[in-house]
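Field log, afternoon session.

UNIT: design team B
ACTIVITY: writing a sequence onto a fixed backbone
BACKBONE:
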C-alpha cells in the first residue's frame, strides 16, 4: 500500500498546532499549564493541539501571549509547505471565456540608476 501525497499533507491547523507544541517545549510549559494560563480546559487545548478542532485567531493570540511569543511565531513558515510531487497537474477547462474588457496597460519598468562608483 502506498501513501498518496494528500494523505500525508498536514492542514494549517495541524501545522499551527505543531508550532505551538514547539513553543511550549521551548518555554518548558506543559499542556495543563498552558490551558490554565489561557483560561481553557486541558481537553479544549488537547483537541486543538491534535488538529481535531481549528484554532481561531483570538485563541492563537491568547496562546502566544501565555507562551511569551508573537503570534507570527506560531504561524508555520513557507518551508512547511508540502514539496512538489511528480503527480500530473489538475485538469484545466478546455474552454475559457475571453475577458470582456481589455487588460490595463502594463506599467513601464523603472530605469536603473547607474552607479557613480567605478
Amino acid at each position: 500500500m502506498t501513501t498518496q501525497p494528500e494523505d500525508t499533507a498536514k492542514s494549517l491547523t495541524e501545522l499551527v498546532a505543531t508550532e505551538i507544541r514547539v513553543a511550549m517545549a521551548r518555554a518548558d510549559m506543559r499542556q495543563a499549564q498552558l490551558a490554565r494560563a489561557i483560561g481553557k480546559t486541558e481537553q479544549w487545548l488537547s483537541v486543538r493541539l491534535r488538529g481535531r478542532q481549528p484554532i481561531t485567531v483570538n485563541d492563537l493570540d491568547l496562546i502566544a501571549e501565555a507562551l511569551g511569543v508573537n503570534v507570527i511565531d506560531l504561524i508555520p513558515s513557507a518551508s512547511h509547505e508540502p514539496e512538489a510531487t511528480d503527480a500530473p497537474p489538475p485538469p484545466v477547462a478546455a474552454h475559457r471565456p475571453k475577458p470582456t474588457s481589455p487588460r490595463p496597460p502594463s506599467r513601464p519598468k523603472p530605469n536603473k540608476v547607474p552607479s557613480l562608483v567605478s
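LOG NOTE: The mean pLDDT is 78.
NEXT ACTIVITY: expression trials, pending approval
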